[in-house]
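User: Show me a protein chain along with its predicted structure.
Assistant: Here is one chain, sequence first, then structure tokens.
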Amino acid sequence: MSKKLKQHLILGLLLMVFGVMLLDFVTGLNQSARANQLTSTNLLKNYNWSNMAGATVTPHGIGISALDRNIVQQDGSGGQTNPPVNLAGPRLSFSSDLIINASMQDFQDGSSFRLYGDVPIIYDEWRFEPPSLEFKQVGKQLVVNVWDGKAAEPLQAKTFNLTSDVQSLIINRQGNRATISVNGRYVGSLSVRKVFDKETIYFGLDAKSDWMLTNLTALAPNGLQVREGLASSASNTSEPTLQSLASKRQRPIKIGAAVALNPLLTDDNYRALALGQFSMWTPENELKPQFIHPQPNTYDFKEADLLVSTALKNNIAVHGHALVFGEANPRWMQNAPLNQKQQIMTDHITNVMTHYGGKVSGWDVINEPLSDDDADYASGGDGLRKHIWYQAMGKDYIAIALKTAKLADPNAKLYINDYGLEEDGDRWDALIELIKQLQSQGVPLDGIGFEAHVYEDGDHIDPRVLQRHIRQLAKLGLASRISEIDVHGENASYQAKEYSGVLTACLNEPACVAFSTWGITDRYGSTTDIGTYPLSYGNDLIWSKDYRPKAAYASLVQILQTTQ
């Protein structure tokens, strides 16, 4: 017998032994399941996948469309991948080992199947990657990437050669390791420390070209629990809430917050505050172009739809953010020829606002148009940012966008939103001049959003100046809203004073219609340090990262209770 033949026989015996071992293990799992009156859980037939971005539910399985979503940084650089995760659908809870069996069609180059041990979190133009496993076909290889929650890049990658495209995938987790079988053949094993530590698994599916998930089952020796979507609502409390106090005033105003879908679906504490404390939500990221319009002819509204519908079911108004912005644009928008950008912009406005007609009460049609460069205000400059829309249309982009928005949804309130408007100076003067020019041209505009960010310790918003500016806008027929307030600071009393001063100014002016914080809790706040592992949370919102109400929250409650 030749040496080569002997090697083949040995390999065949090893594969046979592995097959028997796998069969024994699965049999044991089934016996255990029967003993506990549990069966293998079918995660496709019995649960909801309709709210996952890029997914289409069919009688044959879940169709996965190529979205190629990326998160670009504020300066337009970078492009962190943002693959969809089915947070509204089934997630697994288990207490020991686990087998996951997936079957797929057309799982070709670039397709991926992912198991998340925790929830990805989107901070300000940055995605925090939790421990996860990614199974990705690259050519005729299966690449398995492992994230451990300590870096944006995978901790390790293993590559397994394939004889054909992936049609079935079995992940058998036992302790800190997992064995991988592809198309009924064992291909190898790897360490999966951290990924399964929390004994919860979320599913992510992504594509470069369309494919279909035809089967997804799970089995565990000690049983499984499957949880979906919004498991609880607002907490029942006898304590007054911000929205209840604001609604009882002689002049009721909306008390709002920027709300993110991921924690809304997966964090009970966050969800209770979002539903119980606020009467208006601003989707923090879900309506930005890089999320809902990732490719030229591709819109995916599913995540934004879920957030909007949840708000409306709970009698919470929605303010849309943001239609035209120099940031948060997908790469294809940035790179499109100048002579195409006007059409791109107007099509985007029309499609998004038409989709949400009658559901979103107001929009930041123009977000942060004013420049940070002193040179843009000098020598008769218009003070506007020279971003991609300005480069294509000049300052006319603002009028074009507002006119387009009015046609798309005549009933929605249209806003320009920016920061630094709480102070006198070049920015304020440039805004007033812009408003007068727009009004002289008959351009529709309903109001101005004062972001009211306090970025550093010692910064201060003078309520008297803010009130004067609100009155000045009112004389021009415009409403005002405090749109994104947050106050960075370690000094609790200072933070409370800044929040309460801005709310008081708003309450004192009839033209101020809403007061909205840019987030709810420091756990998901936008001032968390970008790209840091472990997370270094900011300190700018009215609930701490541990959901303790801060002095700032108490100050807002007191003002709403005592002033009319």
